[in-house]
Amino acid sequence: MGSMKSNLSRFRGYFEQTAKLMVGVPDYDTYIEHMQGRHPDQPVMTYREFLDNRLEARYGAGKAGCC
Amino acid sequence: MSRIVNHAPWLAIAVLGAFSLGTVALARGETINALWLVVAAVCTYLVSYRYYSLFIAKRVMRLDPARATPAVRHNDGLDYVPTNQYVLFGHHFAAIAGAGPLVGPVLAAQMGYLPGMLWILAGVVVAGAVQDFMILFISMRRDGRSLGELIKSELGDIPGVIALFGTFMIMVIILAVLALVVVKALTNSPWGFFTVAATVPIALFMGVYMRFIRPGRIGEISVIGFFLLMASILLGGQVAQSETLAPIFTLTGIQITWILIGYGFVASVLPVWLLLAPRDYLSTFLKVGTIVVLALCILLVAPPMKMPSMTRFIDGTGPVWSGSLFPFLFITIACGAVSGFHALIASGTTPKMVENEVQARFIGYGGMLTESFVAIMALVAASCIEPGIYFAMNSPPAVLGTTAEAASQVINNWGFVITPEMITQTAKDVGEVSILSRAGGAPTLAVGMAQIFSDLFGGKGMMAFWYHFAILFEALFILTAVDAGTRAGRFMLQDLLGVFFKPLQQTASWAGNLIATGLCVAAWGYILYQGVIDPLGGINTFWPLFGISNQMLAGIALILATVVLFKMKRERYAWVTMVPAAWLLICTLTAGVQKVFHSNPAIGFLAHADRFRTAADEGRLLAPATSMEQMRQVIFNDYLDAALASLFVLVVLAVLGFAIKTCLQALRSDRPTTREIPASGVTAGAGD
């Protein structure tokens, strides 16, 4: 049962990641992991700052629309 | 022996696909079930993915699972993130799927479903999916650079600027045509207009909620937004019934045009978190969700195809759009078969997130196959309604007249049986006053979807709800595209104009922003306005122009891919991109030249201008003009459209010229001259 439950939560995790990336927001935990692993000396953005940063990247200068 | 065993299931799929395709193609007179189309399409996709995309990956590109992708080399947790291939597939698909694959096939159905279906399938396997896959590959090997930058670095500065300028023009036309689709759907429709207008306050509420009340809760607010949307559809039904409110929301096409122009201007200067981002959430999730549900419904309902497999209009006399099967069918169905705009997406965020090179096959080729399936579903939805209703909805008022009686007479003369009562009953079923001349795909698709959905959920009583749901769903993501496109166009324009006047380039300056936004909105607004007052309905004139420009961009992308193959010294395999590029060039150049010079005023802009000029010289007025002033305006617009079409032709020819020169240079060189980032060997998640 345990493994089924963890499969389910992993699936939920992927579903959530996919939905968020569809609107241009990558995984925040991955970002935190990356900063802690590779740049422990640098400041880490809060979730709110992270969202603003991604918003600017998605709709800021030089982005094209869809078809 | 095991080789044969490995291929056996694929052979079975191929045989099943061929049998289904044969059933669809050879049906004469008798009605066939939509499932035959679905099975034929899915088998085609599976076999082409298994064999052709593998061939491209292994032989043509030689994808290397040990070679580090930009996501690995530049990993920053933000733009460059190694991402699970299924997650990235979802992102890529949501980015490429738009109004294109839904509208084009609906318009193409005037020739019957067979020509459209064959082009969608052949086009995606040989051209569309190859383009998306190749551009993703090329960009991925160059740090995820954009199409413009790729053309610049592989072909040279001048073709780079030419292509950038072409892209801007294409964007303006796309925005105008998409906005036109919305105007056609909402004209004199209080229910539709109210529901779509309600998305603005809903999005504003979501924006404020996300910013101040529960920051960052994307999932939560999207669910709340979804329920508010459904409530607005129900409320819209009440509004349409109300004697006091209905007239307020009953607007003419010209009024809606001005509202859209004003909206486009305001929306694209507001902060993104307030309006654009929340509406983007709604439209993205609604789009993907509806596509999935529509697929399931088609499988469950298995509707019969009522449209003939081929109609008499393959001769080019069709009322929905003018021009013969070649080249105009291949222009009308753009996205779904092959779409140049995907080249911009495949060189956008996706290449920066691919975890391992070999996954580009699934994301690039596979993503486009999925998009093509959306086009097949749109074709099914448009072909399972009564053909008479289809033509009533999609023919312009200049052909049909404005009453159900006149329309049914015209359509009966074409050989499609329809009574005035059927037309008015359909309008009543979907909760509208009239369904005549609502060209542009969205309403037809909405009737088709309403029919399919209501077969499963709620029966006839729910048909009006589902119709307005479908209208809302399409209008929502078109408006998001208008908003995001105006913003992107503004930045492009600021870049281009900044060359002449420096201060304009500062994207943070208010004056620069307002001027560039104003110019951008004026550009698409002008074309939109011309489309709305056109007695042929606008779509008739502008959809081909959109198709030409979009397919030309695809041609340019495939030319770039060919050049890269030559520079990699893989010219042996260059036919993979040369064949589709050549076909697209033949179609678009023929169509472009015909749009300018064809002697039929319904097709050629110059012939149309001549007709008006002759009439003006004799002092006569021709519809839609009601004064000499307007006659001159029509003539001016014809010349403007002719100039645009010619410009596109010149852009493509120029890029082709530079490409041939570069290929010849590459042939003379004895080693690869391509500008790839050299291979380095750190990878993540190899081939899982």
UniProtKB/TrEMBL annotation, chain B:
Subcellular localization: Cell membrane
InterPro entries named in the record: CstA, CstA_N
Keywords, comma-separated and alphabetical: Cell membrane, Membrane, Transmembrane, Transmembrane helix, Transport
Transcription among keywords: no
PANTHER family, alphabetized: INNER MEMBRANE PEPTIDE TRANSPORTER, PYRUVATE_PROTON SYMPORTER BTST
Family affiliation: Belongs to the peptide transporter carbon starvation (CstA) (TC 2.A.114) family.
Name used for this protein in its record: Carbon starvation protein A
Entry keyword Transport: yes
Pfam families, sorted: CstA
Residue span(s) of domain CstA N-terminal: 33-591
Major location (coarse): membrane
Transmembrane segments: 7-27, 33-52, 93-113, 119-140, 161-183, 189-209, 221-240, 252-276, 288-305, 325-347, 368-393, 465-486, 507-529, 541-566, 573-593, 639-660
GO biological process: cellular response to starvation
Membrane topology per record: Multi-pass membrane protein
Any one Gene Ontology cellular component term annotated for this protein: plasma membrane
